[in-house]
Amino acid sequence: MAILKVARMGHPILRKRAKEVKKSEIKSDAIQRLINDMVETMHEYDGVGLAAPQVHESLRISVIEFDLESERYKEMEKQSLIVAINPKITVLDKKTKGFWEGCLSVPGIRGWVERPQAIKVEFLDRKGKEVSIEADGFLATVFQHEFDHLDGTLFVDKVTDRSKLAFTEEYVRYHHEPEKELD
Fold it and tell me: Where are the alpha helices (H) located in 80-125, listed in sequence order?
């Protein structure tokens, strides 16, 4: 496994719609190695999710995982590793909730983003099995944040109140609420 270089805002790959992964390719050594490297990279940078375009691969793959061990997410419910390939989201309830989001591809910035909080997510797992999950709260936000990357969207595009866009230092000083943070 390897820690991969993370593309930062401004790199063209982050603004492209990623390509679907053929079901026949999912079990290939290349895709499985990419997934393993994405998980290791996410852990190295203390993220809760990572999408393939963030590591310079224009493929519809995201990984998500967070636990109670992390100081940043101790208020959140633990989420074991999810590998989502070719995901699709259905909004179940349009009621929104906001979190202060950050991103490994937009280092040093936080922004308040409102997103639907009840969704259904359908995807293929790393074995090519079809999975369907209903998610709410923080997990719903994480899914939407990561899947936005697959469509060339960054969280800063979703910040509607520009007064709630801040450098991390100022965010910590003036806005920090651990239960409302996503990175």
Answer: none
Hey, which bits of 73-136 come out as E strands?
Answer: 79-103, 106-124, 130-136
Q: Measured between alpha carbons, how far is 152 from 17 in angstroms, rounded to an integer?
A: 5
Each residue's pLDDT tens digit, 67-92: 756 555 556 678 999 999 999 999 99
Query: Is 146 among the catalytic positions?
Result: yes
Residue 9 and residue 106 in contact, taking contact as beta carbons nearer than 8 Å: yes
Instruction: For 138-161, write each residue's pLDDT tens digit.
Output: 999 999 999 999 999 999 999 999
- From 57, 101, 146, 181, active-site residue: 146
Tokens of 24: 């026949």
Q: How many CB atoms neighbour CB 97 within 10 A?
A: 16
Distance, in Å, from the CA atom of 101 to the CA atom of 10, rounded to the nearest integer, reads 18
pTM listed for this prediction: 0.91
